[in-house]
Design goal:
Order of helices and strands: EHHEHEHEEEEEEEHHHEEHEEH
Strand order of the largest sheet: 2-10-9-8-5-3-4
Bound molecules: 4'-deoxy-4'-aminopyridoxal-5'-phosphate
Helix content: 25-40%
Number of domains: 2
Low-confidence stretches: none
Distance between the termini: 27 Å
Number of strands: 14
Shape: globular
Largest sheet: 7 strands, mixed
CATH topology of the largest domain: Aspartate Aminotransferase, domain 2
Oligomer: single chain
Radius of gyration: 21 Å
Strand content: 15-25%
CATH superfamily of the largest domain: Type I PLP-dependent aspartate aminotransferase-like (Major domain)
Mean pLDDT: 97
Number of helices: 9
CATH architecture of the largest domain: 3-Layer(aba) Sandwich
Length: 351
Amino acid sequence: MKKHNFSAGPCILPQEVLQKASEAILNFNDDDLSLIEISHRSKPFVAVMEKARNLALELLGLENKGYQAIFLHGGASMEFLMVAYNLLNKKAAYLNTGTWSDKAIKEAKEFGEVVEVGSSKDKGYNYIPKGYSIPEDADYFHCTSNNTVAGTQIKSFPETNVPLICDMSSDIFSRQLDFEKFDLIYAGAQKNMGPAGTTLVIIKEEILGKVERHIPSMLNYQVHIKSDSMYNTPSVFAVYVSMLTLQWLKDLGGIPFIEKVNNKKAELLYTEIDRNPLFKGIVAKEDRSNMNATFVLTDESLTEKFDKMCAAAGINGLNGHRSVGGYRASMYNALPLYSVQVLVDVMKALK
Ligand code: PMP
């Protein structure tokens, strides 16, 4: 029996995906060779890359709409840099909703003026700023859809005429959004998609090619698009597992299906957090994340007992981010509703 894995990332992946991935390590495609010992230019791997890119666009409803999907290296953190390198001429607008937005802002400042249109830093990022305005002359607006550390999630995205760029690392493929509103979406694989080691970037091609600076090849989105995400050796294993996970999601019924499951999981846990006087949520209710639920014990002396009960129930990865403490239950796509029920039962049994 596997553990109930609430880890924030790298995190739980579907069991059947892990099974198929482990088979491919020994014998991929029935060729008596491992996935990780064949050329990335070989026919079978080129087919994997193509399928992964197509599935990503298909699941988001962005096929044949001027978007490209590429798999890059360097984590979502590399995209903090690449977004600015490729798109920032003079001025960019950023919404600061957490640790990761803050890091994205830091990188963008290397390339031009950054207008922080709103920030929740003053309150430990425990809410999503609202009612901010985006300068019309900004090269783009950047936001983080789900704040993995604080446990907040943007429920409604602004209407703006400037390109909309979003770090969706921790909630991509988890809920239905009007993805056509976005001009560039990026996400590290290691939450809802696959193992660490690759980053999915979805780009509306028409926004590229508008900065004056020279962009080094490896940091240039156009270079990666032109070479079909094979400019250099891709993270073959991470891309393969991402492809399997995206296929798993498609077979289940895609984002509309998984969103319903995710809503049920979040409702189950937040209902208990609000009902049980021994627990308290730490972010504004209307901004609560359906992926990462953060909470604390109201009586800290129960910490050891609760931790032991969780461990005995096979619950893993419930500790909050090292910068905030408390607890964080990450409920990504592959986490079954049953695991949340086990956690809720432990919370109910705590006295
Ligand atoms: N953005 C968000 C929302 C994240 O949760 C993370 C990592 N947890 C990052 C960016 C950074 O990702 P990476 O470690 O892949 O660079």
